[in-house]
Amino acid sequence: MGKSNDSSIFSKLKFYGPIIILLIANLNEFDLNYLKPDYFSFNFSFILIFFWSLKNPQQVPTLMIFLCGLFNDVVTSLPIGLSSFNYLLICGVTAYLRNIILRPNFINDWMFFLITILILNSINYLILQIFFDMEISQINYVINLGFTVIFFPLFFYIFKNLQKILI
Amino acid sequence: MVRSRDDFVIAFRSAFLKKKAKDKFSLFTLIIASIVLLILTNLNLKIINNLEKGLQDIVYRISVVASIPEKKIQDYYLKAKDHLAVYELKTKEENLYEKYNAEKLANEYLISENNRLRKIIGEQQLSQDNIIAKVLLDRESPFLNSIILNKGSKDNIELGMAVVDDDYLVGKIVEVNFLTSRVILVTDINSKIPGIIEPLGIHSIVSGSGKNEGTVEYLKEEYYPKINDDLNIFTSGIAGIFKPGIPIGKLKFDNKNKIFSVNFFSDFTQLEYVKVLISNKGDENGQK
Fold this sequence. Notes:
A: 7 helices; globular; B: alpha+beta; 6-stranded antiparallel beta barrel; elongated
């Protein structure tokens, strides 16, 4: 009985692996800061949420994504609710994509990802500038966006393999 | 057209309003919740501030725990980097140390060889102390370029002792009183210093000209092609009065008069304190 419970907990942890990774990544401020390269950062959370909510949304419950967003806002000192809003919009876009696309392919996913984060970053920028009077470095935003798009194929490949292990 | 709009609405509604099997809230509800939170944060309400503070306290504590692996990786990375840097530095230092050690040994060998050769040719070993003296008077006579020092026989000053400014030759003692002494400068027309042109090793006599420059005398014409403006002249120590190797000046060829002049290292118009080198006959190793 005990063994069965253990295996059940383990399989649940395995199943919700992506959300645990997202949680750790948000709490860690995952930005490869310790390597100290100038102008190098990418948004790992966006890639993770986009991939998993597109390929297997059951593994990333929306409520958990909402909470991860709140944690991210606290850690990065952003207005509470902003990251949640971004993450949930990604989920919305991927849900819409799932509904309209019959034959998914990588290039389409990549292009949709680019468009999605372009829109998200624009909304982010506008919200922070207009409603919160925050000074934002546009160059940093663009560089972050660029690296996030560049790294998408790599993480897509990694997550695809991880998906096989987790399910 | 109507059909495609209907498809869009259906897809949109399905994406945002339909709840997933295990979800308690729809995507739309959560998006609205985050927008409400954003608005409340912007309004700076007390309740939201308190909620934010509570959330921060919890998240920061969790973040500390969650950051442990990252911090460990960071520490190991920095340690490895430091270790490599230390290793590189150590390798460099070791190479440098070996080089200096080899040079030191070569110098020791040259010094002992030099002393041995001096002993073979019977040259006196001189070791020198010095006395700092103040220049009391600076006679600017066209016939005698000399200075008066505030040290005399009371301070063991003797005739013929070399006088230097820093390490450059200024002149020699020609008159000793109990409390003062006179130095004839190398610029004086009566000054004759045995010199050696280095690195060629050509011996000559440096004479004063009564001006700021000296002349090189008794230099055979066969050496002329070898001599250029980059050569320096030092005391040769041949007379046994000055120790060898005191820098005197730089050689300069006067093309017009076909003579070699010496541009003295020392500026004789600026002398305030000078050193009188007290020569002592030392033992074989050149020590007192």
